[in-house]
């Protein structure tokens, strides 16, 4: 027998089945929302993993193509590595749940979400978020939940709760909010310049709905929830902490961490660690956890300095931004480049322009997401933090940071009609000490402008941090957090936007949620900071997009043709369009609505390709002059090809002003000639004249 639980959620029925499948997992929930079905499981090992100082949680979102009635592409016809959407969804599930596990829990834990069926009206990502929270809450895995997640759209000025895939695609707001019973614990948003007040309203509308879901989950837990397992605590013994403080007094630790130079601070900590290793040489148990103990000591020191003394490790004021610098055109021959530096965080962004045919094809579960015209990639090499390790391609963090910067800039990009290019920005991290994703947003914005992309407005981003005390009212917000404040603080609240509103939010926290004053304060602080960055740093480097693209970028001209003429331009088996492209060294893209984009480097050859297409799709006009090539000679005249597949005839009497006996006396195959259209002859055919064109 299995248990089934249902609630109405945003006009649809959410059903949770427990005990039907996956009974050997610590917790499992078969989720149904509309016809969307996701199996969510939570499993944990019996014992802690040795030799680690973190909670080993892994979250998976498995997209199966059978869920939308597709067979995967490729030779193997099998799902390959996780898609970008899978990775981003797994991150959104991980971020609100991770803080709710015990900090001293070291058992391996896996949250798996298997998408079995997709109803376009019910996004599987949301179902997986709810299912992971339910599976973990009813399991025996220690978890201070439940938490719940709601998605919100904004269409025609009205909020839409848990929008469909189509609504999500066309919405002015893509907001995901996770909450505990009391507080907001995670925010993820992409927005079309939503004002701060409207964004706060949207966040707390989600929070209200989350409370209904949490009550529903609590009811399930009361019936089928398992008793939480006992586990081995990996907390640092109090006795060890006291001994460390005797050897390294708090004042000495403050001196060690109180510097704006990352390398200096790390050297100081190495010195302290070496001193403690010498002192604990005979205590193997303490030596094994010394690294974690020193980390915790640093954390307590930094938090006390900020919270009680309002002192930041690098000496800045609470609202002060690190020194800023920006420049464009750093890299020669690329289509656009810019570098943005904030303290010891430095990003170089490079823009590449290409025809729309080079846009990224997306093969996923959402039929509305098939092409990405704008792509943002983020790279984080080990040298940026002074470390050495081989590059193995982008990890989940890199994909997440790239997606955030991408989301930040999409609202200000020109339409395909205005700017018929595929656009790729690559953010290379040259140096890192906190908030590289926000530096990537600033660098990308300037790089796009340097490349001549006519973005509508400038976009900047900043991160706000948080240190909390014993009560909800005891907290300090930090503008522009550096790495140490991120590691030891409670929040990384990233906001990007223009002067008029927010374009993206990503909020990560390490505590059990944020009060409304903290959320409102962080959003206000981020607005103030991003306007400062734009006015004092970005605008002096480049104030507006360049009027033309780089000389090294491909040039594109667009013309609109009758969609019924598309076949004429393409020709049988693509022969016509291939001939135009090969002869003129251009690339031609045609959309279903008849928009033709001609891409090339040589503007003269592009103009020639455009002339040929004009001839193909338009009827000959009487009195107009045309240029063509002699392709056939007969006794009665010559046939002229004006464009592939489009010919006309010049009668022998119209070749020269004087009488000629043979066409060959004047014309040779391959000659380029200029002719005048004389209108229709007695047979209703268009006739042409060489002599009348002279």
How would you describe this structure to a colleague?
By secondary structure, the protein is α+β, with helices and mostly antiparallel strands. The protein has 5 domains: 3-224, GHMP Kinase, N-terminal domain (Ribosomal Protein S5, domain 2, 2-Layer Sandwich), CATH 3.30.230.70; 238-309, Arc Repressor Mutant, subunit A (Orthogonal Bundle), CATH 1.10.10; 324-541, Ribosomal Protein S5, domain 2; 555-617, Ribosomal Protein S8, Chain: A, domain 1 (2-Layer Sandwich); 625-693, OB fold (Dihydrolipoamide Acetyltransferase, E2P). It is built from 16 helices and 29 strands. The strands form 6 sheets. The protein has an 8-stranded antiparallel beta sheet, with helices on both faces. α1 (84-97) packs parallel to α2, α6 (250-257) crosses α9 (290-309) and α10 packs across α11. The N and C termini lie far apart (94 Å).
Query: What is the CA-CA span between the terminal residues?
Result: 94 Å
Quickly count the domains: 5
Q: Radius of gyration, rounded?
A: 32 Å
CATH architecture classification name of the largest domain: 2-Layer Sandwich
List low-pLDDT spans: none
CATH superfamily of the largest domain: GHMP Kinase, N-terminal domain
Please, how many helices?
Answer: 16
What best-fitting shape do the alpha-carbon axes yield? elongated
Number of DSSP E strands:
29
Specify the helix fraction band.
Answer: 25-40%
Give the averaged pLDDT, no decimals: 93
What is the CATH topology classification name of the largest domain?
A: Ribosomal Protein S5, domain 2
Sheet-strand content, in percent, reads 25-35%
CATH class of the largest domain: Alpha Beta
Largest sheet features: 8 strands, antiparallel
Q: What structural class do the secondary elements suggest?
A: alpha+beta
């Amino acid at each position: 027998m299995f248990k089934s639980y249902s609630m109405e959620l945003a006009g649809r029925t959410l059903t949770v089945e427990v005990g039907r499948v996956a009974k050997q997992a610590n917790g499992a929930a078969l989720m149904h929302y509309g016809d969307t079905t996701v199996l969510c499981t939570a499993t944990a090992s019996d014992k802690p993993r040795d030799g680690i100082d973190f909670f080993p949680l892994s979250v998976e979102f498995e997209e199966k193509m059978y869920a939308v009635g597709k067979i995967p592409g490729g030779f193997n016809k099998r799902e390959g590595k996780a898609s970008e959407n899978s990775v981003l969804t797994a991150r959104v599930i991980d971020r609100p749940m991770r803080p709710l596990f015990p900090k001293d829990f070291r058992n391996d834990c896996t949250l798996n979400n298997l998408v079995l069926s997709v109803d376009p009206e019910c996004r599987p990502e949301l179902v997986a978020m709810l299912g992971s929270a339910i599976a973990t809450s009813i399991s025996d895995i220690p978890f201070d939940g439940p938490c719940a997640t709601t998605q919100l759209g904004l269409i025609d000025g009205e909020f839409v709760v848990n929008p469909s895939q189509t609504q999500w695609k066309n919405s002015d707001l893509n907001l995901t909010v996770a909450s505990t019973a009391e507080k907001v614990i995670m925010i993820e948003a992409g927005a079309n310049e939503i004002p701060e007040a409207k964004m706060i309203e949207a966040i707390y509308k989600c929070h209200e709905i989350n409370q209904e879901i949490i009550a529903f989950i609590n009811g399930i837990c009361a019936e089928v929830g398992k008793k939480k397992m006992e586990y081995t605590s990996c907390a640092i013994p109090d006795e060890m902490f006291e001994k460390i403080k005797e050897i390294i007094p708090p004042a000495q630790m403050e001196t060690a961490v109180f510097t704006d130079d990352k390398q200096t601070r790390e050297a100081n900590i190495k010195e302290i660690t070496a001193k403690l290793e010498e002192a604990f040489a005979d205590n193997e148990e303490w030596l094994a956890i010394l690294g974690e103990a020193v980390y915790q000591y640093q954390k307590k020191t930094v938090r006390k300095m900020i919270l009680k003394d309002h002192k930041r490790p690098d000496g800045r004021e609470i609202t002060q931004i690190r020194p800023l610098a920006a420049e464009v055109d750093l890299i020669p021959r690329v289509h656009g480049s810019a570098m943005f530096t904030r303290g010891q965080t430095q990003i170089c962004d490079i823009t590449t322009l290409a025809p729309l045919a080079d846009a990224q094809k997306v093969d996923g579960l959402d039929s509305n997401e098939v092409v990405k015209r704008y792509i943002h990639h983020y790279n984080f090499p080990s040298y940026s933090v002074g470390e050495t390790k081989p590059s193995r391609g982008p990890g989940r963090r890199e994909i997440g940071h790239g997606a955030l910067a991408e989301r930040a800039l999409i609202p200000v990009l020109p339409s395909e009609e205005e700017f018929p290019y595929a656009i790729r920005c690559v953010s290379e991290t040259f140096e890192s000490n906190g908030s590289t994703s926000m530096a990537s947003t600033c660098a990308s914005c300037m790089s796009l402008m340097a490349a001549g992309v006519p973005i509508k407005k400038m976009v900047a981003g900043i991160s706000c941090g948080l240190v909390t005390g014993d009560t909800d009212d005891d907290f300090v917000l930090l503008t522009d957090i550096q790495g140490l404040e991120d590691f030891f603080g409670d929040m990384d609240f990233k906001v990007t936007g223009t002067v008029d509103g927010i374009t993206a939010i990503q909020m990560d926290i390490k505590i059990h949620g944020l009060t409304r004053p903290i959320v409102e304060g962080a959003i206000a602080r981020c607005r103030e900071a991003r306007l400062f960055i734009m006015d004092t740093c970005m605008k002096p480097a480049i104030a507006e997009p360049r009027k033309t693209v780089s000389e090294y970028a491909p040039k594109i001209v667009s013309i609109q043709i009758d969609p019924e003429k598309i076949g004429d331009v393409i020709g049988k088996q693509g022969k016509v369009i291939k001939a135009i492209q090969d002869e003129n060294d251009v690339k031609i893209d045609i959309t279903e609505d008849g928009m033709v984009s001609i891409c090339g480097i040589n503007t003269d050859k592009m103009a020639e390709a455009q002339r040929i297409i004009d001839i193909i799709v338009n009827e000959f006009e009487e009195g107009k002059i045309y240029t063509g090539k002699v392709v056939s000679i007969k006794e009665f005249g010559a046939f002229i090809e004006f464009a592939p597949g489009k010919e006309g005839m010049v009668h022998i009497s119209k070749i020269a002003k004087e009488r000629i006996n043979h066409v060959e006396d004047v014309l040779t195959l391959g000659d380029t000639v200029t002719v005048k259209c004389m209108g229709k002859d007695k047979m209703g055919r268009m006739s042409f004249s060489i002599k009348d064109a002279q």
